[in-house]
Amino acid sequence: MLLKPKDKPRRTAKPKTKEKEIQSLVESYLKANHIKYTRFPDSLYRYIFGIGGVPVHIKAQLAEYMRGVPDLIIYIPSKIYNYTLLLELKTESGKLSQGQKNWGKGLNVLVAHSFEEAKEEIERFIEYVNWEMNP
């Protein structure tokens, strides 16, 4: 069945900013402000799962434990505990994968759809930690 122009499903617009660009901006912001963070680069996953020398059981374990880990794990140390922000970065139209939903069950994983949103969440996190540490 042919669709008439008005019946054609709408295409979603391509995101203006790619997720990789948002990630780069956020990491630059964190570095400039001396904020500690961890990330697992996509290139690491591609390397591990792409080469033939890694045993299948290791790949399976990594897939089980690492699938869905947030893009950035941001830390602020204190005398007793570390405060941690789990931040997932997406484009304006990006959605969480099932692995990300499963990994984040029971945790507060914040999702930012732009650099501005990510920066706002990081600043709110820092403000909260400062309030907790200096009531």
Describe the overall structure.
The N terminus is likely disordered. β3, α4 and β4 form a beta-alpha-beta unit. The chain starts with 18 loop residues before the first helix and ends with a helix. It has five helices and four strands; from the N terminus they run αβααββαβα. Strands 1-2-3-4 form a four-stranded mixed sheet, with helices on one face. It is α+β, with helices and mostly antiparallel strands. Helix content is 44%, strand content 16%. It has a domain of 87 residues: Trna Endonuclease, Chain: A, domain 1, CATH 3.40.1350.
- Let me know the number of strands: 4
CATH class category of the domain at 17-38 and 69-133: Alpha Beta
Q: Fill in the CATH topology of the domain at 17-38 and 69-133.
A: Trna Endonuclease, Chain: A, domain 1
Report the sheet-strand fraction: 15-25%
Low-confidence stretches: 1-11
Overall 3D shape: globular
Q: Architecture of the domain at 17-38 and 69-133 in CATH? A: 3-Layer(aba) Sandwich
**How large is the count of helical segments?**
5
- What can be said about the biggest beta sheet? 4 strands, mixed
Give the strand order of the largest sheet, numbering strands 1, 2, ... along the chain: 1-2-3-4
- Helix and strand run: HEHHEEHEH
Name the features.
alpha+beta, disordered N terminus, 5 helices, Trna Endonuclease, Chain: A, domain 1, about 140 residues, 4-stranded mixed beta sheet
